[in-house]
């Protein structure tokens, strides 16, 4: 394995980690539109809180997929063809979520306005749930043949591990969104978000215990990388506990950052356990390795220079956009 192959494996993991941190609270706020808000003005305030950012945050998912296509073509081909239906459902959820932001403002009747608000809530739940299922299935091991084709059945995709993984990611996103609401809003909406956090963090702790047990049962993480697996799982729990304590103490920034970092920590757990593979097969001989899945050294080198030239501008623009829209929003 070359250094560039390793670097691009890390970069793809980093892109997914950034996506889940930034888009995670967008998903959470989207779920909150019909579970936290009590009236139209509060729903408007929630949508306004993420209005300037949600579409830019989704770019990291597209970038991660594009980087995978360009740097690890065999990984992209096996993953996206093997999980075609699930990725199609993710795409439908993201499309419905995107149009819901626009259409709810154009509706002249309460029925259709509420229809698109519920569409926003459901699609904001479906997208992280399905992505959680895909990522957990990817590390669990799939029936992959010698050519790298995934030939799976229903239970290969839908099983206890993938369901718990999907629920865990969705719940983490919801809590991340509640913490963002506390940062961005004022009044009763903010207090209600804190109250929901106090209730849901104990549920998350129980879910994390179940998830850790299923990681032991369904993956080879504890046999191949026991120390790093235990350390990252401990970090996930500690970050969650810190976010819970910060919620109780009403430390908004601490709860937002620590709670949000649990999502990149989960991505780290999966990518560390995955290494040096990119796809885990039930038959270990058919697992796809980084060194066998990557593009040529010339392609990786060219992509590195392009990324170094573009990345500073992307980061600068995103930091500027958050700075411009940093003020709190109050429901009218």
UniProtKB/TrEMBL annotation:
Its main location: membrane. NCBIfam families: cydB. It is found in: Cell membrane. Pfam families: Cyt_bd_oxida_II (PF02322). InterPro entries: Cyt-d_oxidase_su2. The keyword Chaperone does not apply. It is a multi-pass membrane protein. One of its GO terms (molecular function) is metal ion binding. It comes from the Bacteria. GO terms for cellular component: cytochrome complex; plasma membrane. One of its GO terms (biological process) is aerobic electron transport chain. Keywords: Cell membrane, Electron transport, Heme, Iron, Membrane, Metal-binding, Transmembrane, Transmembrane helix, Transport. The chain crosses the membrane at residues 6-22, 83-103, 115-135, 157-178, 199-218, 230-248, 255-275, 302-325. Belongs to the cytochrome ubiquinol oxidase subunit 2 family. This is Cytochrome d ubiquinol oxidase subunit II.
């Amino acid at each position: 394995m070359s250094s560039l192959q390793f670097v691009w494996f890390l970069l793809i993991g980093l892109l997914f980690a950034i996506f889940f941190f930034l888009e995670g609270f967008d998903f959470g706020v989207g779920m909150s539109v019909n579970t936290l808000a009590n009236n139209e003005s509060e729903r408007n305030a929630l949508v306004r809180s993420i209005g300037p950012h949600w579409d830019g945050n989704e770019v990291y998912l597209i970038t991660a997929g594009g980087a995978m296509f360009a740097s690890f073509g065999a990984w992209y081909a096996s993953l996206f063809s093997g999980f075609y239906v699930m990725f199609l459902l993710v795409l439908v959820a993201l499309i419905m979520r995107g149009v819901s932001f626009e259409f709810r403002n154009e509706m002249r009747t309460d029925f259709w306005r509420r229809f698109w608000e519920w569409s926003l809530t459901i699609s904001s739940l479906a997208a992280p749930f399905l992505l959680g299922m895909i990522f957990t299935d990817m590390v669990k091991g799939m029936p992959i043949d010698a050519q790298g084709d995934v030939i799976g059945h229903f239970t290969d995709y839908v099983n206890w591990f993938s369901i718990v993984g999907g629920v865990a990611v969705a719940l983490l996103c919801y809590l991340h969104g509640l913490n963002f609401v506390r940062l961005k809003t004022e009044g009763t909406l903010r207090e209600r978000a804190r109250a929901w956090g106090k209730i849901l963090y104990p549920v998350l702790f129980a879910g994390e215990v179940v998830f850790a047990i299923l990681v032991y049962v369904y993956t080879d993480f504890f046999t191949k990388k026991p120390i790093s697996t235990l350390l990252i799982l401990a970090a996930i729990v500690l970050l969650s506990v810190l976010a819970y304590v910060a919620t109780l103490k009403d430390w908004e920034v601490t709860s937002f950052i620590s709670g949000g970092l649990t999502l990149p920590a989960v991505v780290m757990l999966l990518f560390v356990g995955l290494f040096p593979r990119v796809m885990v097969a039930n038959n270990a001989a058919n697992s796809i390795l980084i060194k066998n899945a990557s593009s040529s050294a010339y392609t990786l080198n060219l992509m590195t220079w392009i990324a170094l030239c573009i990345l500073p501008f992307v980061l600068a623009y995103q930091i500027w956009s958050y700075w411009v829209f940093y003020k709190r929003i109050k429901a009218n």
